[in-house]
């Protein structure tokens, strides 16, 4: 099936600054797609290019197979939920939602019906007559979503729409947005700098850094098999160890780090002698009895223990001076004492090899 | 209040101190309030008294409504009221039509140097003496002035246009001087407008014109009303510019006051002055109602 939205080598320069650098993406119909990255990575600019609010310096934007690069925002089948919501303060909730319908000359009965439906959809029935300044933050959020969705866009663009909400409301809105997207089957493109938000909601994620797309994949792929050091560090936490490929065998690739020989299950095997970085998630580093007979297993010493609630974090130094962070469930953390000798290790399949 | 009596002394002292803190701004207002009372309210009261007690200065006051009767029963004076309001209305509308696009353009200037230059051009007329500026306009707009010369040379007109000693001249000169008072409030409201509102409108299908009509204009209405109020009230009370540009051929209320002061007809001059004030109050009150409605809708903080 042809992609709903396609970017081909899209770049955007603001004077000398390159905000978006040759980005190519294919976003499938009905997909919840996230653009994830730190602030200034170009994710919002990319979204605005899709919506037509920015004109790309180079490249093409396709919407359902048609080139829309030169189509102004008011003639694109996209609608945006803005970061600051951008609700019209001089209009009521009803008129805000009806704004797009009136411009398309929908009959007045049609407008009333569609606005009512949209308010039902975002769980705000009976709010039509309210003024915008009478609404709470969460209610404004819902109105902004209704105002965009009522136009039945091919693609809904969301620019960090939950950023202004407090944590509890944000988690609730995440669930509702995801449910809404599944119910409607509309393609959602969601910009966020919050990796948790992206992992929870997205079918696929594009991780962006410095104007480029670093990796595109499902939440699990991005988390379990990051392809660059940036992705591994930005999504979740990771221990990074620099070393060299020294060979391969039954467990995958053998990498030497400060005298330790570490097995890693790599998809494509780098040649021997190649400098690489190994990434291991703290929750995959097992300590004490939990290590079992993992091929990567060493004796070490606990340097420090940090209590973090449900989990406990331990700094462990292995023979050869390699230092790692391990995360242990609180109930398994009894008897972890700084200075105590302890075994530490992890499985080859939890070891990601990154080119350096 | 019943509890105040049984409060311990320390609590009452705290109450006093709190009251002092709350009223700390009162001394700051005192000079302005004193000046306003002495210069404005006392003088207006004297005017009202003088309008019904002729020859007050001469020492034989006698109550009479003669001056009021003369003004209110003579159609000529009603004509002057209408003429004054008409000039103020035209000047206000013309300032708005020129001022809104100007304010919009200036608010879009990104280079600080250019913005400063725009402000200098806009505010320059205020820096020049009113008499000098008005004579400048007389020279430019007279039968043999630069404007008529250029238009005749270009063949646009055959006979010179009458641009001075009539309402046209008054309007041109008044708009020139009052334009900044229209532009400034509008710039400040446009500056407060969130840029993503325009983007949201366009995203929802509005062309540039529809975005202006449905979003930008209604949200900048408070600035428009504020500017219109200032320009209107300054025009109905203006004297030097209408007097010189009108050349005695256009009768306005401030001109009547001048004429009657010259003729030492103090009661009649007082009547005209009080009527001028009443007109300003009525129009400001009415437009304030409009402004308040615009503000509650626009949710823009008052400048």
Can you give keywords for this protein?
heterodimer, A: 356 residues, alpha+beta, Rossmann fold, OB fold (Dihydrolipoamide Acetyltransferase, E2P), 2 domains, six-stranded mixed β-sheet, five-stranded antiparallel β-sheet, 8 helices, 36% strand, elongated, B: 303 residues, mainly alpha, MetI-like fold, 13 helices, 0% strand, flat, disordered N terminus, disordered C terminus
Blueprint (SSEs and pairs):
The complex is a heterodimer of chains A (356) and B (303).
Chain A: E1 5-14, E2 17-27, E3 32-36, H1 43-51, E4 58-63, E5 66-67, E6 78-81, H2 93-103, H3 108-121, H4 137-149, E7 155-159, H5 167-184, E8 187-192, H6 195-201, E9 204-209, E10 212-217, H7 219-224, H8 229-234, E11 239-249, E12 252-257, E13 260-264, E14 275-280, E15 286-287, E16 296-307, E17 311-318, E18 323-329, E19 341-346, E20 352-355
Parallel strand pairs in A: 3-8, 3-9, 6-7, 7-8
Antiparallel strand pairs in A: 1-2, 1-4, 4-5, 9-10, 11-12, 11-14, 12-13, 14-20, 15-19, 16-17, 16-19, 17-18
Chain B: H1 9-22, H2 26-52, H3 66-73, H4 75-108, H5 112-127, H6 130-141, H7 146-153, H8 167-192, H9 195-203, H10 208-237, H11 240-246, H12 253-262, H13 266-298
Helix pairs in contact in B: 2-13, 3-13, 4-8, 4-10, 5-8, 6-11, 8-10, 8-11, 9-10, 10-13, 12-13
Describe this structure in words.
The complex is a heterodimer of chains A (356) and B (303). Chain A has helices at residues 43-51, 93-103, 108-121, 137-149, 167-184, 195-201, 219-224, 229-234, and strands spanning 5-14, 17-27, 32-36, 58-63, 66-67, 78-81, 155-159, 187-192, 204-209, 212-217, 239-249, 252-257, 260-264, 275-280, 286-287, 296-307, 311-318, 323-329, 341-346, 352-355. Chain A has 356 residues and is of the alpha+beta class. Chain A has 2 domains: 5-233, 3-Layer(aba) Sandwich (Rossmann fold); 237-355, Beta Barrel (OB fold (Dihydrolipoamide Acetyltransferase, E2P)). In chain A, helix 5 links the parallel strand 7 (155-159) and strand 8 (187-192). In chain A, helix 2 crosses helix 3 (108-121). Helix content of chain B is 77%, strand content 0%. Chain B contains 13 helices and no strands. Residues 1-5 and 299-303 of chain B have low confidence and may be disordered. The A-B interface holds A 51-53, 72-75, 78-80, 82-84, 86-90, 99-100, 103-104, 132-133, 147-148, 151 and B 194, 196-197, 199-207, 210, 214-215, 218-219, 297-299.
């Amino acid at each position: 099936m042809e992609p709903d939205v396609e970017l081909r080598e899209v770049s955007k320069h603001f004077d000398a600054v390159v905000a978006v650098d040759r980005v190519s993406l294919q976003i499938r119909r009905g997909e919840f797609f996230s653009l994830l990255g730190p602030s200034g990575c170009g994710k919002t600019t990319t979204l605005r290019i899709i919506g037509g609010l920015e004109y790309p310096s180079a490249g093409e934007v396709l919407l359902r197979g048609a080139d829309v690069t030169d189509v102004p925002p008011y003639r694109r089948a996209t609608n945006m939920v803005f970061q600051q919501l951008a609700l019209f303060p001089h209009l009521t909730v009803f008129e805000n939602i009806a704004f797009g319908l009136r411009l398309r000359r929908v009959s007045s009965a049609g407008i009333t019906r569609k606005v009512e439906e949209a308010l039902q959809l975002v769980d705000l029935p009976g709010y039509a007559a309210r003024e915008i300044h009478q609404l709470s933050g969460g209610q404004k959020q819902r109105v902004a979503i209704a105002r965009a969705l009522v136009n039945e866009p091919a693609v809904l663009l969301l620019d960090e729409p939950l950023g202004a909400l407090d944590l509890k409301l944000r988690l609730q809105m995440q669930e509702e947005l995801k449910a809404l997207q599944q119910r409607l089957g509309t393609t959602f493109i969601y910009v966020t700098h919050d990796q948790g938000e992206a992992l929870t909601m997205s079918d696929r994620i594009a991780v962006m850094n410095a104007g480029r797309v670093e990796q595109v994949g499902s939440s699990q792929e991005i988390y379990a098999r990051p392809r660059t050091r940036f992705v591994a560090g930005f999504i979740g936490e990771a221990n990074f160890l620099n070393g060299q490929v020294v060979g391969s065998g039954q467990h995958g690739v053998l990498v030497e780090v400060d005298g330790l020989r570490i097995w890693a299950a790599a998809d494509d095997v780098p040649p021997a002698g190649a400098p690489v970085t190994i990434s291991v998630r703290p929750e995959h580093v097992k300590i004490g009895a939990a290590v079992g007979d993992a091929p990567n297993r060493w004796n070490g010493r606990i340097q420090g223990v940090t209590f973090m609630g449900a989990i406990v974090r331990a700094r462990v130094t292995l023979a050869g001076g390699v230092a790692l962070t391990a995360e242990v469930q609180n109930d398994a953390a009894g008897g972890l004492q700084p200075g105590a000798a302890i075994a530490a290790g992890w499985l080859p399949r939890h070891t990601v090899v990154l080119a350096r | 209040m019943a509890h105040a009596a049984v409060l311990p002394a320390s609590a009452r002292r705290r109450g006093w101190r709190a009251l002092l803190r709350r009223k700390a701004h009162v001394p700051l207002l005192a000079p302005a309030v004193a000046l306003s009372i002495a210069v404005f309210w006392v003088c207006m009261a004297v005017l009202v008294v003088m309008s019904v007690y002729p020859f007050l200065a001469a020492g034989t006051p006698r109550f009479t409504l003669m001056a009021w009767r003369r003004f209110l029963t003579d159609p000529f004076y009603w004509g002057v009221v209408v003429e004054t309001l008409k000039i103020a209305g035209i000047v206000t509308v013309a300032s708005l039509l020129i001022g809104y696009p100007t304010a919009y353009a200036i608010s879009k200037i990104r280079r600080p140097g250019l913005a400063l230059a725009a402000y200098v051009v806009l505010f320059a007329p205020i820096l020049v003496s009113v008499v000098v500026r008005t004579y400048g306009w007389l020279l430019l707009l007279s039968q043999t002035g630069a404007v008529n010369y250029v238009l005749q040379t270009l063949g646009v007109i055959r006979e010179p246009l009458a641009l001075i000693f009539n309402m046209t001249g008054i309007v041109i000169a008044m708009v020139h001087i009052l334009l900044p008072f229209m532009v400034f409030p509008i710039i400040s409201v446009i500056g407060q407008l969130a840029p993503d509102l325009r983007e949201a409108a366009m995203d929802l299908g509005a062309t540039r014109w529809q975005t202006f009509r449905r979003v930008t204009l209604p949200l900048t209405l408070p600035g428009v009303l504020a500017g219109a109020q200032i320009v209107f009230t300054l025009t109905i009370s203006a004297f030097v510019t209408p007097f010189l540009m009108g050349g005695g051929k256009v009768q306005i209320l401030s001109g009547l006051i001048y004429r009657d002061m010259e003729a030492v007809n103090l009661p009649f001059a007082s009547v005209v002055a009080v009527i001028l004030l009443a007109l300003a109050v009525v129009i400001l009150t009415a437009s304030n109602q409009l402004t308040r409605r615009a503000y509650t809708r626009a949710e823009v903080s008052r400048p």
